[in-house]
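lol ok so funny story. i was supposed to be doing the assay writeup but got distracted and ended up predicting the structure for this chain instead. priorities right. anyway since i did it might as well share w the group, maybe its usefull for someone
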Amino acid sequence: MNSPQGSGAPDIRFDHVSKRFGDVVAVDDVSLSIERGEFFSFLGPSGCGKTTSLRLIAGFEQPTEGDVHIGGVSVVGVPPHKRPVNMVFQHYALFPHMTVADNIGYGLRQRAPRPTKPELEKQVDEALDMVQLSGYGKRRIWELSGGQQQRVALARALINRPTVLLLDEPLAALDRKLRREMQIELQTLQRDVGITFILVTHDQEEALSMSDRICIMRDGRVVQSGGPRELYDQPANRYVADFVGKTNFISGSVKQINGSTVTIQSEGGQLFVGNPSTGAPGLSVGGDASIAIRPELIVVDACDTNAQDMGTDVALNGRIKNRIFLGEHTEYLVVTEDLGDVLVLSPKHIESVRGGFDPGDVVSIGWNNNTALALEDS
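and the output, tada:
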């Protein structure tokens, strides 16, 4: 089954798709489109519906309601092997008794008509070149590192020239350094082959660093979708802000909405000001809301430094509760009387000039109102 060329249809479209397993609603009335050539990610915690959504595209599950289209054609009822998609699984699902070349060429050998031996070898060699494993064809799977096995799984999936490549947490088993290297390789590979990649992950950093667009899911529904910068800078609500990156929250109720600013009264009675997120238009006076401040936008300075000297609108005194050195920045947990624990990320270039702080040090922290976001709590 091939998608119609030149039709302009998105590679994937969900029309009011729901999937139930008995009384459990895994996917709940989801409508979305994934454009041709996108690197798209489903992001969310376990049980949010992201893997079920991927399996609905692959054909391993059928929707209870709604329609799934690939390339403008409905694929409801179409079995996995007749869909123009391939999948790379978390544990790769490679055949240990086969060589690398035999693993990569497995799908081609199942075709009818089957390619000739010279044509099969040619395509396998091209796939090995594509994933930078030239000369590895005769090796056994158990002779390869985790990163090399992941490349073999990619080559096996891509050799069939699918319209869409599905990636089910394929980097989860790799260590941090190798995972970052493979993220870069996947991005490069996706640009080179030009096909749609759809990734399922619970790793926010992975989704932010690799994706053109991200779909945040919760309880089977789409909470917000958009580009990485949009989701990070303009989250729809507290759930998205909390899931995408690290954030400090000040809970309270909306006291005043004045043009482009929102004033929230905290549970302790203090007033804090933020800008309403463009993705969260539902704020109203008296409603529950939060002020969200990213830790890298908070300044930490010596004790009793006022807001004017720090160049901020807000200044609070606190004490360093914990410090973690992370190379490019230092992460401080500052306990304050007004807000409790506040996370602060201090860049290395600032610390090299001013010096750092130790647990127990009394400090001042501050931020500007225009860097704070007013968000719905829902």
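The chain has two domains: 12-232, 295-368. Residues 1-6 have pLDDT under 50 and may be disordered.
back to the writeup now i swear
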